[in-house]
Amino acid sequence: MADALFMRSEATGAAWRVWPEPDAVAPGTVQETGSYLFELRDCAQAGEADLLIDEVALEALRSPTPGSARWRWSPGFHAGVVDAELRLPNQAPRRFDIVTDPDRRKLTRDDFDTMVREVLDDTFALFALSSFRKAIAKGTGNRPPAIARLEFLRSRIGELEDIVAAIERNPRRMLKAGEAVLPYHRASHATGPEILRSFRSGRVVRETATPSRLPVPLQGFLPERIRVRQRQNSFDLPEHRQMAACLRSWAAWLTAVAETLASGRQGGDAGLRRGEALWAERCRRLARRVGRLATAAPFAEAGDAPPRLTLSSVFRHDPAYRRFYRVAQDMNLGIAAVFGDFLNLPLARTFELYELWCFLRLVRAGAEEFGPEGLDIRDLFIGDSAGGVTLATGAVTVPVGGGWKLCFQKQYREFWVEPDGQGSYSRTMTPDVVVAQEAAALGGDGRVIVLDAKYRIDEGLNDALSSIHTYRDALVREAASGAAEGIVTAAYLLTPHLPVLKPGYQETPLPGRLFHPDYRAGFRFGAVTLRPGMTAAEITAALCLVVADAKGGSP
């Protein structure tokens, strides 16, 4: 048996091959904070083998049997794609990828990709409604992109390779008219008009055979070479031109980013320098992979075109081409010049991205529910002279119409030091999202709904209840009598959890009880499902549900 490298979970004992010909594993098999063993089997040079993860050598363990080697690895609080490299003496390194997912309480890597896509998509949609009137330019590579964007783009490349392979197996063709110049003895199927046109150029020969086999009108003369019209299959479609141009553009962008990362940081933290060097090499490899796709058979003979896809009937009706169009939209989102602290997040800190995702989804839902007339998002975006846009995410307030406004990470200091007299009676508190309605819109006291985003599911939600209890009880204002009174009308958790409900909330165990309509409306307290991939209509319905509960009736 040839040498092979296996990976084994120390928690479950399950093992699967990672090199060569890796086994297919389900999402969530390799999780952050887990512990795993790598086992090299049936290898004569196992004692001299080294295994590196992201260019850092793992410490070898004692080999259980001759011809084998073993290493232990824990991803720690890291999720995403890691580069693994097996080194054997006098042999080329064996490289492969390992996909690690967040803890099951945080769902999977696909949800991270979905959130990044929707954050960028919401940014574009809200930007179009703002007072800015300049386009969001493609990143030029002179400003290092953030980790989340690179992770997102990296996850698209594999799907892009699968799509191009499917197109290569069954590419679209077109019949293209052409002209071939053939010797007269090979032009047996030439038509009369083609023969007559061929007399206009080239040499004319006289037939010497008797009797003549030529038609009488030719009088024994024939062109030496005959121009014959032909119809040929061609890959030179407008769609192939556009796709090839996009692939070349993406490869060039990745190459520019690699150079920027490689030459950017000279001093500072050694870990940051090593991370940038690692991503520089990853971007070079990604650029080479995308560049090879541009040389695939359907694109090799395609002409030049702008790197922009036009939604034609081919992209609409052919499944493989339709998938390319969808992934191209993701790629263009990933390379757009959109910046912000939220993007400087590794996959392991998905919960911070989830907080911003909830806010932007709700802002967009508010614009659709109340109309764009009352939407004011000028404080949400900061433009720069290079055409880039930075998303401001610290203590942002966005009016959405109808007297309602959404606040992201609004700070509540002690109520006696706040100008409006509303705040905390203990310490400074920062809820993730606050939905507030001004008192003037109600003709009385305003409403404050606190939403705490928790990227957890199942039993992990039970531990998150204390935060919304705290917000509901500790946020107060000074009443006319001088006493402190609560200002929170309702408090809910936002979570991707999908609950299973029973008829009554008393019979529904936690955490499902928090989602029960009677429990949520009766106590104005509980949880609401906001899950990556939900449609805009579903997000709007969730916002209306929260507002209706807080008002004690229909929205």
Automatic annotation (TrEMBL):
InterPro entries: DUF2357, PDDEXK_7. Pfam families: DUF2357, PDDEXK_7. Residues 76-327 form the DUF2357 domain. This is DUF2357 domain-containing protein. It comes from Azospirillum brasilense.
